[in-house]
Amino acid sequence: MSPSVPLQEMIRAIRSARTQCEERGVIQRECAAIRAQFRNTDNEGRSHNLAKLLYVHMLGYPAHFGQMECVRMIASPRYSDKRVGYLGAMMLLDEKQDASLLITNSIKNDLSHSNQYVQSLALCTLACMGSAEMCRDLAPEIDRLLRSSNSYIKKKAALCAVHIVRKVRELGELFVPSARSLLSEKNHGVLHGAVVLITQLCERSPETLERFRKTVPDLVQIMKGLVISGYSPDHDVAGVSDPFLQVRILRLLRILGRHNEAASDAMNDLLAQVATNTDSTKTVGNAVLYETVLTVLDIKSESGLRVLAVNILGRFLLNNDRNIRYIAMTSLQKIVVTDHIAVQRHRGTIVDCLKDQDASVKRRALELSLALVSASNIRSTMKELLIFLSSCPPELRAHAASGIFNAAERYAPSQRWHIDTILHVLTTAGADVRDETVPNLIQLITNTSELHCYTVHKLYRALLTDISQQPLVQVACWCIGEYGDLLLKGECQETEAVQVTEDDVLDALEIVLQSHMSTPTTRGFALTATMKLSTRIIDNVDRIRSVVSIYGSCIDVELQQRAVEYNALFKKYDHMRAAVLERMPVIQKNSVGQTNGEVGEETVKESQAAKVAQKEMALPPQPAGQVCDLLDLLGGSQEPLQPSSSLGGAASTQPTTAGGDLLDLLGGLEPTPPTPAPAVTVYEKNGVTLTISCEQQSDSGLTVTLTASNSSDSDISGFTLQAAVPKSVQLQMRAPSRDSLPANGAAKLTQLVILNNPNKVNLKMRIRVSYTSQGSAVQDMVQVDSFPGISAAGL
């Protein structure tokens, strides 16, 4: 290829290359020719060669050797050279390159050039790649150009000032007077640049924001002129007058009216006029309406105006464009807490969006439908959600199931409905539910004693139908083990009575034990249920004994240990078997969102003290003779024992018998309860508080408990914690207790982290906190350098 090949010929040769290797050969030859001509100081085709090099750069090949040529061409007095030089600088240079500092003086000279197009080149380049140092040096020149009489230069200078404010925040004060004066311009381009500049200034300085709140009437007048103006061929887009400027003004009004009642009142009438007069049949009109809705919902607007904004979003839900439906549901999710009644009117349309083919629309519709569930619509909404669960994509099943569980727990109209709903979810998507579902359902079943017969019959039929859903099988095995006697009686008023024999029940449990689909946890449930049935049936105890003995040599250690213990119960402690395997007591729920294992230390102490007091009141006083008889059985001497002080505390001042002293000795052997580990707050933001507490298990072992709570007024969903430690430290994170944080601290999330530090390195942990609050995803990082209650020498 000849060095003088035009740009079009080089492009044609590159495109005609059949292989990547052939293309690289063409580019390498051309780059070599361009280098050679760059060395020639009398080269007349410098702009031509740099243009070819820029095309090579666009293809992804290295073109850094053209940076200095860009600097030379920018310094050229010819406009054609400057144009290509500035274009090359914007593509090949950035603020990290030292060569960018060489063009600062050239840009400053060109900003004072008599040709407006040369000034425009310099402004565009500075706005594209100007570093903080360049912005500080050239900011006075930009402020001078903002006062220019040329509208073409003023709009370019305004956008360049936006870049300067983003790079160097303290330079914003320099542009405040000029930006204020630009609002009186008639040119739409200048107005657009001025609004963008004022927006940046207000976002970065609260003092500037207060100063520009005085411009709200001016902005309202500009916006009204755009809304009521007739057809303008220069600015009309699909029947809307300059929608780009309208959107920018609405965004600025949203910033100025936020948390300010006076500014909000000044723009209420305008927003109502825009909302009612803008055409919603075109995408351009929908864009203006969407910005209007966001502004109405973000400022201190009137209640009627907010209802109008929600109704506009409701119309968006009926739009054929999926993008419009998606942003409508995203906006509704942000306001469902504050404007629940207004959003509730569109519940039917939102539920219909669950049938949409787009996965993103389905996810938003699911989240919004779950947020709209209340005590008044729980039955109808849950019916639609259960239908959706049966056909939803696999990636949404876990989220849908978790949301249904939370809604059913909060708004269940009856215990039977609650149990039926959870069983329906387990039957449909049992493999996708969270780990805490099984213990939560077991607790619910335990607390509803009047439904034990109904529940065990229903779970037994579900077990015979399908054993692939492991959580369902685990709950069914537990219920059969606990309430197998009710199942065998066959008398149930709530459901159709089915005659079940002992062999039928044992056959079902043996199928679970032998199935390849059963996990070790499920087999453990089934084996325990089989063992418990040994006290609830009469004729098949020997069969149960043989089944249990088989698993005494199981390869699974946990299952083997259970089987060995159950065998010992049969052989050595058969007289205790009925007492050991009796029905589980009712699991008490201590407070809202808290079950056993999630209560505070004070609650535990109070409950323990109450139990001790009840036992002391219930026990009748024992005669001294009975205690002496006990001493005689133990082989005590006939002589009375001398009184001795208690090992566990101070000596009693009351007269005691020898038996009382012995009981004091036995009581003194009670272990002292461990001192609870202190909790330290490591994260507190947006109402979310994360605390850690530690317990040292061994010289190298440490258990860290992470506890999260939400004190804000809105629920938080999708709450996840991720932890990272040094490479030599072994980390194991257990499953969290829940995946959401209800508002106002209604429930807490706990998660255990087990650490093993065999090399005794300096222990540090980095925790990533991720959650969704009011539709916005939040992700933060926390560094934990010290662990409470753990000495430095310990780990």
Helix content: 55-70%
- What is the CA-atom radius of gyration, in angstroms? 38 Å
Mean of all residue-level pLDDT scores? 82
Give the terminus-to-terminus CA distance.
70 Å
Can you tell me the residue ranges where pLDDT is under 50 for at least 5 consecutive residues? 590-673
Structural class: alpha+beta
- Global geometry: elongated
Range of strand content: 5-15%
Spatial sequence of strands, sheet with the most strands:
3-4-5-8-7
Biggest sheet character: 5 strands, antiparallel
Q: What's the total number of strands? A: 10
Count of alpha/pi helices = 35
Subcellular location: Cytoplasmic vesicle membrane; Endomembrane system; Golgi apparatus
Family: Belongs to the adaptor complexes large subunit family.
Pfam families: Adaptin_N, Alpha_adaptinC2
Organism: Fundulus heteroclitus (Killifish)
What can you tell me about this protein's structure?
Among the domains are: 449-581; 679-784, Immunoglobulin-like (Sandwich), CATH 2.60.40. It is 57% helix and 9% strand. The strands form 3 sheets. Strands 3-4-5-8-7 form a 5-stranded antiparallel sheet, with no helix packed on it. A 3-stranded antiparallel sheet has the order 6-9-10, with no helix packed on it. It has a two-stranded antiparallel ribbon with strand order 1-2. A hairpin with a 4-residue loop joins strand 4 and strand 5. Helix 10 runs antiparallel to helix 11 (188-204) and helix 23 packs antiparallel against helix 24 (415-429). Residues 590-673 have low confidence and may be disordered. Residues 675-788 form the GAE domain. Residues 592-620, 639-677 are annotated as: Disordered.
